[in-house]
């Protein structure tokens, strides 16, 4: 019996499942000339984004490790669909791999919600320890029940607010504003705790939505704000760093289960190596993005985080009683920040 996660997108997924049995023949991993295995990997970002560069690096590593017997073809810029659509294509095996925000995976792996909690990590060292340690590795496999296997995490930096009309110096500045958010309950609840009006919009449609006033502001990391050119519309960037939600490189279990042990090793090793490479690319990209946006006239400020941190404490209080099992993971993550030996 097929299991489908019960959420508001289930109807759409059922339609894609029906489509998938036909598309499967066209898009799943296939054998090319000479027995070469070809895997398609789609994502929604531009070719100058460090995530795309890391994916190309991973594809090159897989080709190298397999001596050309396995080829990963990378399709950027939503050529194969939006982030959620790509995840659904993975579920039916019509696509091999993708990159997805861990926030998007919340609908398929509820435990992933914890990584979207605002101000969860003390610093970069704390975050890296959690994601590379036992907690992070366990979370990567949480969505296998729904045919999605996490391979590694990519750095997606820290998300902050950018707006068209004024800087966001405190939560009060968000009251009455329509804020674009990820399709995530956690992101929605966070914006509500700040007093804003959360509005889910796909990343590819956001530029136009900002231009047309469908939303007044959004939140993201510096490289995404820069490479998307949203800074052409939004001239105020307030770096309050409310969340540090990682990206996840995901493979369809329908593809993964079709691989032999050697092929799985090629992919996992290449994914891990690409993650190390992507972290370095990301750090350089953040620095470059901020400099270029300042040159373009973007006003970049660093507001005091105290008011933002206080506003989201209610989220932790509610989580403790509504999701005690997941709150236990939050406590484990916090302990990892206190205990230098915990892994």
Describe this structure in words.
It contains 13 helices and twelve strands. β7, α6 and β8 (197-200) form a beta-alpha-beta unit. The relative contact order is 0.16. The strands form three sheets. Strands 1, 2, 3, 4, 5 and 11 form a six-stranded mixed beta sheet that branches. The protein has 343 residues and is α/β, with parallel strands linked by helices. The two termini are 37 Å apart.
Task: Offer a few descriptive terms.
343 residues, alpha/beta, six-stranded mixed β-sheet
Q: Report the principal-axis shape.
A: globular
Count the DSSP helices.
Answer: 13
Mean pLDDT: 89
Structural class, by secondary structure, is alpha/beta
Number of strands: 12
Unreliable stretches covering 5 or more consecutive residues: 6-28
Radius of gyration over all CA atoms, rounded: 20 Å
From the N-terminal CA to the C-terminal CA, the straight-line distance is 37 Å
Topology:
Blueprint: H1 10-27, E1 30-31, E2 37-42, H2 50-65, E3 70-75, H3 83-91, E4 97-101, H4 124-132, H5 134-140, E5 148-154, E6 159-163, E7 178-181, H6 185-194, E8 197-200, H7 206-211, E9 217-220, H8 222-227, E10 236-243, E11 247-252, H9 253-256, H10 261-295, E12 299-301, H11 306-311, H12 313-322, H13 324-338
Parallel strand pairs: 2-3, 2-4, 7-8, 10-12
Antiparallel strand pairs: 1-2, 4-11, 5-11, 6-9, 6-10
Helix pairs in contact: 2-10, 12-13
Entry summary:
Helices cover 44% and strands 17% of the residues.
